[in-house]
Every structure is written in C-alpha cells, then in structure tokens.
Amino acid sequence: MLLIPAIDIKAGRCVRLRQGDMARETVFDDEPAAAAERWVNQGAKHLHIVDLDGATAGRPVNAGLIREIAEQFPGIRLQVGGGIR
C-alpha cells in the first residue's frame, strides 16, 4: 500500500477544510514547506499538494510555494492539483 500525505494550501498556509467548506478551515502550519519537510523526515516519498486558492480562482495562485517545495525536496514525487486547467 502506498500512503501519500496531502498538503492543502490556502492563503499561503497549510490548511484542512471541514467537509470541503472554504470558510471552515483548520490551519496546520503557516509554512507549507515546513509541513512538507515534516512528512519527508517521516519517510514520505510522495506528496499530494492542492492549491485551494487556485481551485477557486481557476488558475494557479500558490505556484511559488509549490515550486519552493519541489526545489527543496528534489527527490520527492509531487502530485499537484488546484487551478490547473
């Protein structure tokens, strides 16, 4: 079985939405790269990253943060969604 940790980014922070409601969020970290680092340090080889702002805007909004994670962890496979059309 392959478990892939997820990082949802909204307003530049790592969040989890309650039942997909953009108004009901729990902030897990102010720095998504720090959240990625914790997952990598725990052995993650893949990360699923969602640009929630991009999903609502219809275009990538947090691409810079996602690029930062990709550059910081070049050996990790990323699955990216949100705002990609």
TrEMBL record:
Listed GO biological process terms: L-histidine biosynthetic process; L-tryptophan biosynthetic process
Source organism per UniProt: marine metagenome
Alphabetical list of SUPFAM superfamilies matching this protein: Ribulose-phoshate binding barrel
Example GO molecular function: 1-(5-phosphoribosyl)-5-[(5-phosphoribosylamino)methylideneamino]imidazole-4-carboxamide isomerase activity
InterPro entries the UniProt entry points to: Aldolase_TIM, His_biosynth, Isoase_HisA-like, RibuloseP-bd_barrel
Entry-linked Pfam families: His_biosynth (PF00977)
Annotated protein name in UniProt: 1-(5-phosphoribosyl)-5-((5-phosphoribosylamino)methylideneamino)imidazole-4-carboxamide isomerase
Entry GO terms, CC: cytoplasm
Membership in a protein family: Belongs to the HisA/HisF family.
